User: What shape does this take?
Amino acid sequence: MLRVDESLSVVDAVGIGRKGTIDKPQLLKSPFWMVDTLFFMTPLQNNDLLFLYSLSQNIEWAKMDESTGVPSLSKANIEKVTQYIPEPLEQHQIGTFFRTPDTTITLHQRKLENLRELKRGYLQQMFPQEGESVPRVRFAGFCGGWCEVKLWEVFEQTSELVNPKEENIELWSLTVEKGLTPKTGCYNREFLVKKEDVFKVVSPEEFIYNPMNMTLGALDLNSLGKKVAVSGYYITMKTKVDYDNKYFSVWLKSPQAIQLYKVYATGGLKEKQRVQFPTLSVITALVPTLLEQQQIGNFFRNLDEQIAVQKDKLDGLKKLKKAYLQKMFV
Assistant: This one.
């Protein structure tokens, strides 16, 4: 569809995916247009739209997937759904009740997005860009230039191997989204710990990264206060004297650093390019004094804590709404 000259509906509706994301209904405000991977449903007679929107969020649409590939819903299957509903007056009261948490969730979601956008802006301005000797934003009291260093001057690689079963060390993994994260319950510990000394130890305040996904920001600092074991494929390293962990936990995942990884990554195929430690160590970075490193590191740590608190609030509101949905409908 390249162009339209009129809307599909002149009344508000509930939108639900036909292909792809089929289990997250959305409230559509008219006038609206849509592509052919989305259905929309409008209330008949005196039924209340907000009630039907809340009701639709409590239906397990994913169980109606009728494809072997991309999740798919059909109009026929949607129309087969049977639900208990009250009279229009009670529908209106229930719909209005759920409008309050929906509005609150939207406001908290917007606040979280604003904090993340604020962080992205500071990341762009707090570190020098290509061709710059100092960043665009400085803390009060810091006027000097930044020094050019190779990352081998900042980090030394570590490689302590362990058998997690014998040492009773927890098995963890690394993801782009969550950083260091515990292995799930479905992780087969016995199967993977048959051979001794095949896992690496990540000690407190050490860095870990995935050389395969370094260009995506697959890196974290162990701030757990305890040792954990990870796959021997990961790279572990620690900072040397005069370099601040909190500062480099931010810089190593900054847009400036990720661009450098893409330039230095080795490997013939783009999807298989890696940043092993010898490659990382020759990358050049502009670094301020230790005191300014600490200031910048603390600044971003405080911002990350605000983001985490806001995310917890948002997750709590979503769980509360889900509990209300489960109890409100038969």
Remarks:
- Residues 86 and 181 are 45 Å apart (CA to CA).
- The longest helix spans residues 88-126.
